[in-house]
Amino acid sequence: IGAIALLAEAIQGAEDDPETRNRFAGNLIKESNRLTHLVQDIIELSRVQSEEVLATAELIDLNHVISDAVDRNEQLARSRSIRVLFQDEPGPEIYGNREMLTTAVKNLIENAINYSSSGSQVGVGSKSMGDVAEVSVTDSGAGISPENQPRVFERFFRVDSSRSRETGGTGLGLSIVKHVAKIHRGEVKLFSQPGVGSTFTLRIPL
User: How much is the pLDDT for 94?
Assistant: First the structure.
């Protein structure tokens, strides 16, 4: 909000300099988009913390959830020249809230795209392991250092603040994933190696 106010004042003071005014206007749009994403994520986090999943539970094919989440990231992936690999076929079935699960998987894919290098790939898949269904999202980004890995699900924590500012990240996406997993009586796990990449796995009881 402070950045938006300062940019608005700067635009007022650059009436006779169209080039500077246009540059400030572009930054103003970028900051307003960041504020919009932040508000949306706070609302989403509040909703997943308060909603009773059993009240709206239905039998869901997890691969349908993944397919929807991939589609919601199509424009982002294209803009960063990143290919999202996913084989759309029947997958494990669980009882849950379809929209909340789609949001969680969308956030994992969005993170993977944002922290991957242009021209690389993000892999998404599902499988059953005993009495648990798993959705895994793997990137080939910079990875996460061991000291930061326990903190990635904290609210507003960002591994790379400069990258988050560039991509519009709010630091709430993984916290939302954690809460969606929790209310589905599941969990989300991370495996990461610096310089190699990261795999986030959402685990939900069958």
Answer: 94
pLDDT tens per residue across span 73-118: 999 999 999 999 998 888 899 999 998 999 999 999 999 999 899 9
pTM of the model: 0.79
DSSP the chain: -HHHHHHHHHHHTTTT-HHHHHHHHHHHHHHHHHHHHHHHHHHHHHHHHH--GGGG-EEEEHHHHHHHHHHHTHHHHHHTT-EEE---S---EEEE-HHHHHHHHHHHHHHHHHTS-TT-EEEEEEEEETTEEEEEEE--SS---TTTGGGTTSTT--S-HHHHHHHT--S-HHHHHHHHHHHTT-EEEEEEETTTEEEEEEEEE-
The one-letter amino acid code at 99 reads E
Count other C-beta atoms under 10 Å from residue 27's C-beta.
16
Residue 62 contacts residue 205 (beta carbons within 8 Å): no
First-to-last alpha carbon distance for the chain, in angstroms, is: 44
* Ranges of residues in the chain whose predicted pLDDT is under 70: 50-54, 160-169
Cβ count within 10 A of residue 103 = 22
